[in-house]
Amino acid sequence: MHIWVDADACPVVIKEIIFRAAERLHIPTTLVANQMLRTPPSKVIRAIQVPSGFDVADRCIVDQLMPGDLVITADIPLASTVIERGGHALNPRGELYTVANIQERLTMRNFMEELRGAGVQTGGPPSFSQADRQAFGNQLDRFLAKHLKA
Q1: E-strand stretches of the chain
Q2: pTM for this one?
Q3: Beta-strand (E) ranges in 42-87?
Q4: 3 near 18, Cβ under 8 Å?
């Protein structure tokens, strides 16, 4: 298994949780972003800087993704592609995207995008909270415990 992080919008506290898990369990982990990223000195953690542009980081992740890999992303279309390719996707707020829920998330995302395109003020996501951080850490631990046994 490899952990891929869609890192441009990933909160620092989530990256720190991922770094600790990667080091503790010796899981190869790659952060992909269109800006330079700082990573701790590690044999299992690395960063890839991609050129700026629409979905460049997403394409980089998808091109290297293997079935069973985990992708950390809030990007629902990327999560959908990851699932289609046999990977797993986890939101930084702790929601595991699955075959059972990804279509609903895509539909809602597209609906909200249509509203925004029509000029409706939809607001953004709530501020990232301590509860979100804890939910992510708990879900990551459960996921890794389940999938590293197999």
Answers
A1: 3-6, 29-33, 45-49, 70-72, 88-90, 96-97
A2: 0.87
A3: 45-49, 70-72
A4: yes
- The token duo for 145 is 């415990």
Chain segment 37-52, per-residue pLDDT in tens: 989 999 999 999 999 9
Nearest one of 61, 104, 113 to 82, comparing CA atoms: 61
- Taking every pair of Cα atoms in the chain, the longest distance, rounded to a whole number of angstroms, is 49
Contact, 48 vs 60, CB < 8 A?
yes
- SS3 string of 75-123? CHHHHHHHHHCCCEEECCCCCEECCCCHHHHHHHHHHHHHHHHCCCCCC
The predicted-structure confidence for 106-144, as pLDDT tens digits, reads as follows: 877 666 677 667 777 766 677 889 999 999 999 999 999
What single DSSP character describes residue 123? -
Q: How far is CA 36 from the centre of its chain?
A: 18
Residue (of 53, 40, 48) closest to 12 by Cα position: 40
In the numeric block, which tokens belong to residue 143?
């996921």
Q: Contact 4/65 with Cβ under 8 angstroms?
A: yes
Q: How many CA atoms lie within 13 A of 53 on its CB side?
A: 8
* Length reported for the chain: 150
